[in-house]
Design goal:
heterodimer, A: alpha/beta, Rossmann fold, 8 strands, B: alpha/beta, six-stranded parallel sheet, 12 strands
């Protein structure tokens, strides 16, 4: 007796506002990877933002309004996949906190939270997807973005997936788990502080001598890549999903198309 | 982003030696703590227990306060109650005056700093001698503590050597750290013996015995509290624990989290004044129990913060503290725990930058030995700050516009479609070196050119 093959999950890809506006390649990579992993993928066309800027700025009402909007938009899917630890963390860890426990929205937020995943951990832990026939002769170092790491436990999954790309080698930086100083609106509210923090990060990145800087959150990657470029370092930055989708030869963040 | 905070942070960031000083001490502390935690398989369970002990006391605060008072009085101590910092200082100054004290020795106490006791003693004309080595350095420099465990962390040993050579009476050779400590010892020893009153803080107040527990690595607390005629303890009411056993459970967490050691060099339980057959000890023992906002925290959703053991781990691991040190925070308590406590003590308006100048990376909560959800509490202050209209006007306006768009997808699409070509004009080489309204970003970073069209627009085209 063979067990019946479960039907493919119908998943929503929530691209995030940063990926949508600034680096569509991450959105397309996520889409292709999810399809490779046997998902039926939809990209709800009216998606905007998860509401994290409001949440972290103290605008509870604004965050709640966006949470309600996203719950309505996404709750009909089997899973919601987000190529960002901090946005996935917002849905998973913080949407339920926005509503009093007795509110019907609270139960709906909890139900949504339970099926929301960060892309790389979803591919690795839930879909058991592994890269095939990929090769890239390069060395990389990996930054563990804080929300993914501490709210969602994303640490080993991206490295395990990237290990499946032939020729790609990992050189860990010192303090890979230390915040890069992005912090959403923090980086523009306290630019001098943010600069001091990211400069320490880029020194650690440069010290590895790695060709590539990889990560799972575009905000952090832009912060580090932007600082590296200003400092004249040649390290090239990608979202890990881009390499896993075979886009390692495409322009890195900030490189002309 | 008040001008005062920005100026203090900027001064810290441009200080040529501060970063070295901070990294020497906090880097060492991080490494030692990590080793101590790795060597203790029961650490997670101990954190849960620590949290539960503190929460139990907070939930039964009135009972344990009354129990402590009864048992402390039974041990021969005098117990005083202070609602505010001013009341606490008045009590201490009155006790010093009644004892005819000319000079007092003080063992390091953050509560003392919190209530402004050094200043109050000075104002009362009472000579104050700080006996903790780091506090001695801070006092010599006419400075303030910049860390709750290492008050003089902001001074490099080179700076301390120079100061000792200038200000100590018999500095001798100061070539080694040992020689510097010996010089401080010569400077302080006589003063220990001459003091009329010794003032200490408390790490734990033991309810079922009425004892006060202090931990130090220098033995200065014992020399502060034993020779003088009077020992005065100033302690926050959150220091209560039900019993000595509970204090020991918390002590294991406190010391490992602070220094990575298993135990401090000195752990002393002070219980009542000198008894008939005791060879030494104070003839009077006073305990000043200080509220100063703590009971108010119970009604402000900040009860979790009353667990804080003042270990300093959240400071040592904070990326912001590591850049600017303690003085830039402007309050008694810096770092993540300070970002939660300072608005209670100094008001949110004054301390509004502290909860805001945080990346919410969550490491502080991860290392907290009693699992205080520091990022959640910090965000709570941001919520309040937003409601009170303390958030910077430009940021508020931008956020409101963005939120309006995010709730109306056609408007949002239109906005991104208009913004992308504009952004691309500033980033012809792939990177923008300057951007309108984003000077904070481009001051030190380049901004990558966005794609020609958004992901959603490109997807729509592909699927046509």
């Amino acid at each position: 007796m063979s067990t019946p093959i479960p039907p493919p999950p119908r998943v929503a890809l929530f691209a995030t506002c940063l990926v949508d506006a600034l680096r569509p390649a991450i959105g397309f990579s996520a889409l292709e990877l999810l399809e490779q992993a046997g998902c039926v993928v939809e990209v709800p066309p009216t998606q905007t933002c998860c509401g994290q800027p409001a949440l972290n700025s103290g605008d509870q009402a604004g965050a709640r309004a966006l949470a309600e909007r996203n719950i309505e938009l996404l709750e009909g899917f089997d899973a919601i996949i987000i190529p960002s630890g901090s946005c996935a963390g917002t849905l998973r860890a913080h949407y339920p906190e926005l509503f009093p426990p007795t509110s019907p929205w609270h139960a709906r937020a909890q139900a949504l939270a339970a099926k929301t995943y960060e892309l790389l951990s979803y591919l690795h832990d839930i879909r058991h997807w592994r890269p095939e026939n990929l090769a890239l002769p390069a060395s990389y170092t990996y930054h563990d973005s804080c929300s993914g790491l501490r709210e969602l436990g994303v640490k080993t999954q991206p490295r395990a997936l990237l290990a499946g790309i032939a020729g790609l080698t990992l050189t860990e930086m010192a303090e890979a788990e230390t915040c890069c100083g992005f912090g959403g609106t923090f980086c523009v509210k306290y630019p001098a502080l943010s600069t001091a923090i990211v400069s320490e990060k880029t020194a650690n990145i440069a010290a590895t001598g790695a060709d590539l800087l990889l990560g799972g959150d575009l905000g952090c990657l832009m912060n580090m890549a932007g600082r590296l470029h200003r400092q004249g370092h040649r390290v090239r930055a990608y979202h890990a999903a881009e390499l896993l989708a075979g886009r390692g030869a495409a322009p890195a963040i900030g490189e002309p198309e | 982003m008040t001008a005062a905070f920005t100026a203090r942070a900027s001064a810290a960031l441009t200080d040529p030696t501060l970063k070295t000083a901070i990294e020497r001490t906090t880097g060492n502390a991080r490494a030692k703590r990590a080793a101590a935690v790795a060597a203790w398989p029961g650490f997670e369970a101990a954190r849960d227990l620590g949290r539960d002990i503190k929460d139990h006391v907070t939930q039964n605060l009135a009972f344990y306060l009354a129990t402590f008072e009864r048992n402390a009085i039974a041990s021969g101590a005098h117990v005083h109650w202070a609602r505010t910092a001013d009341e606490a200082c008045e009590i201490v100054v009155r006790l010093c005056r009644e004892a005819g004290a000319h000079s007092v020795t003080r063992a390091k106490s953050m509560l003392g700093e919190e209530i402004g006791l050094p200043h109050a003693l000075e104002a009362a004309g009472i000579t104050r001698v700080e006996t903790d080595l780091a506090e001695h350095i801070v006092q010599l420099a006419g400075d303030r503590p910049s860390h709750i465990v290492w008050p003089a962390l902001h001074k490099t040993r080179e700076q301390v050597r120079e100061m000792f050579a200038r200000l100590h009476h018999e500095p001798g050779g100061l070539d080694t750290v040992e020689a510097m400590v010996a010089s401080a010892r010569r400077e302080l020893r006589q003063k220990f013996m001459q003091a009329d009153v010794g003032i200490s803080g408390a790490n734990f107040l033991i309810a079922d015995t009425g004892a006060v527990c202090t931990v130090t690595n220098e033995g200065n607390a014992e020399l502060t509290t034993t020779p003088p005629r009077l020992h005065i303890v100033t302690a926050g009411i959150e220091k209560l624990v039900p019993s000595t056993a509970h204090a020991m459970s918390l002590l294991r967490l406190l010391v490992r989290s602070a220094t990575g050691a298993e135990l401090t060099q000195y752990t002393t339980f002070h219980c009542g004044p000198k008894r008939a057959n005791d060879p030494d000890g104070p003839s009077e023992f006073h305990i000043v129990l200080v509220d100063n906002g703590r009971t108010r925290m119970l009604t402000q959703g900040l009860e979790d913060m009353l667990r804080c053991l003042r270990c300093g781990a959240c400071l040592n691991h904070c990326v912001v503290y590591r850049q600017i040190g303690g003085h830039a925070y402007g309050g008694t308590y810096p770092g993540p725990m300070g970002a939660v406590l300072t608005p209670v003590l100094d008001g949110l308006k004054t301390a509004q930058d502290l909860p805001r100048a945080c990346t919410l990376n969550g490491l502080c909560a991860e290392v907290c030995p009693v699992k205080i959800p520091l990022p959640t509490l910090i965000k709570g202050w941001r919520d309040k700050s937003w409601r009170l209209g303390l958030e910077p006007r430009a940021a508020t306006l931008a956020l409101r516009l963005w939120r309006l768009a995010a709730q109306h997808p056609p408007l949002y699409r239109l906005g991104t479609r208009l913004a992308l070509p504009l952004l691309r004009r500033f980033a012809r080489t792939g990177w923008a070196r300057t951007l309108p309204l984003a000077g904070g970003w481009t001051a030190a970073r380049d901004f990558p050119a966005p794609a020609r069209k958004t992901f959603l627009d490109q997807l729509k085209e592909r699927r046509k």
